Amino acid sequence: MDRVYNFSSGPAMLPLPVLERAQKELLCYGSTGTSVMEMSHRSKMYLEIYDEAVVLLRKLMDIPEAYAVLFPQGGATQQFSAIPLNLLTGSGAADYVDSGNFAFLASEEAKRYGRVNVVASSRADQYTYVPALEKAAFDPKADYFHIVANNTIYGTRFDQLPDPGPAPLVADLSSCILSEPYDVRKFGVIYAGAQKNIGPSGMCVLIVRKDLLGKANPLCPKLLNWTVLADNDSMYNTPNTFAIYMAKLCFGWLLEQGGVAAMERVNIEKAGMLYDYLDQSKLFKGAVQQASRSRMNVTFSTGDAAKDDAFVKQAAKAGLINLKGHRVTGGMRASIYNAMPTEGIRALVEVMKQFELEA
Ligand SMILES: *Cc1c(COP(=O)(O)O)cnc(C)c1O
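The joint structure predicted for all components is written out below.
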């Protein structure tokens, strides 16, 4: 069977050369005679893979030495708990921007450990935009300021990073990491579940400014404690060795594509093709406000659930799968991360045109 264009929000498409390389190395990695899955995480051969993953990510994102690069388990959601447990220990208050479902869940989890100041919210408007921020609403004593830079479910993004003042910026980049250059120096903490733009699910990429280590709540579980992870190179217990290996392959592929700046150019073009079509379509409408449009998750609908359903089915027949929107939004969502080729977008626009003609 041929591979399809998979518009899943995550676990999402991986670059074909990455999968082929993993397939080639699956039974026997290099001259080791074993699969990566069968290697001790403490072995020299595995540590080379691990170190290369860190080196490649540092290179791709230009991560300064002042930041630790960690690969914890538990996806991005685990960090919703780890963040307050590691950082909410000064004033005990944190600022959160409520820009979507994951942002909301992150703030709800933080409430279990301290005071959460929701500085702005678009919840009442079904998260159809990223809310404007007023400095006056920020807590000047906040231990940190939390955002979700790209709202995966709704298809919105911050087109400018907020300046939280003295509080470190803590950002969930799960669905936009490596899709465009981010200046790591502007952040205290970056975290991202791997299954959108990096590799298999279950793993998280965590980048922490080192001066933020050592502040954890004494009740913080050891595996969530960033200092413990940093002191043990993410290997306090057995890490997700295979996911880290896959991430390494993906990072290598990204560098071959010209790195993150080159990816951004392609991603702007890809998203632009879809939004251009939506803006002139008489049938399909974009679901969010123009100024907040995501480049990674394009949400749209016909305004008629039965037609949406028919479209999703027709697209699937043409080999374009997983276009159904999230269960809370309905409609359609095309997740178009780095691994989605421009041809996939072209094919999607063709199917939309065809459907519109026949509607
Ligand atoms: C997917 C996603 C999550 C959840 O990731 P898990 O790995 O399932 O925990 C959190 N935040 C954002 C922005 C996401 O896109």
